[in-house]
Amino acid sequence: MRYVLTWILSSLLAGVQAQVVVNGTVGEAGSGEPLAYVQVRLQGSRSGVLSNTEGYFSISLPAGRQVLTF
């Protein structure tokens, strides 16, 4: 039983370490005005989120170097 519990905990911890949360704000290049409802996506993937009415977004990404597109 101890080995099963250790394996389960190890699997859970490995999953937690494999994700990174990126938070940010999308703004207009010239004025810096926040942009609402902009789609923020992981390049090469269908994963993505929309910025809120204040331009804020939060997205979970796989660990490592990633590219976001707007």
Short characterization:
This protein is α+β, with helices and mostly antiparallel strands and 70 residues long. The protein has one domain. The chain contains one helix and five strands; from the N terminus they run αβββββ.
Structure overview:
- With 70 residues, the chain is of the alpha+beta class.
- It has one domain (19-69).
- It has one helix and five strands, in the order H-E-E-E-E-E.
- It has one helix at residues 2-17; strands at 19-25, 39-42, 48-50, 56-62, 68-69.
- The protein has a three-stranded antiparallel β-sheet with strand order 3-2-5, with no helix packed on it. Strands 1-4 form a two-stranded antiparallel ribbon.
- A hairpin with a 5-residue loop joins strand 2 (39-42) and strand 3.
- Residues 1-12 have low confidence and may be disordered.
* Poorly predicted tracts of residues: 1-12
> Fraction of residues in helices?
10-25%
What is the radius of gyration computed over CA atoms, rounded to a whole number of angstroms? 17 Å
Largest sheet: 3 strands, antiparallel
Strand order of the largest sheet: 3-2-5
- Mean pLDDT across all amino acids: 80
Number of domains: 1
Class by SSE composition = alpha+beta
Form type: elongated
